[in-house]
Amino acid sequence: MDIIISNTSSTPIYEQITSQVKAQVMDGTLKPGDSIPSMRALAKSLHISVITVQRAYEDLQKDGFIETAVGKGSFISADGSDFWQEEQQRMAEDHLAKAADIGRKCGISLAKMKELLELFYEEDPDL
Q: Does pTM surpass 0.70?
């Protein structure tokens, strides 16, 4: 598990850890059942407080990305990618709600909005 933290970032360190673990679960770097370092080991390797890592692990466990077994350690949960996908869908819903509000206020038809969404959805982001 590779975690890189920035002390100059405005994002708290525990959030940097949680977001990087979630990203590694989503891209397949971390797979269900993989063990992750103990809180003490990660804190030592990152030169940060154990309490900071504890907060990150608590958030990851609450969000369903890791499971902790007393005496065995912490592991990537089988359900982690489902929670991440649900979170991403929630973000997309927020953006779509804003777009719908703009469309209604500006008199853009629903058919036109659907057409625009289809264009953006099918567009190759690498072009």
A: no
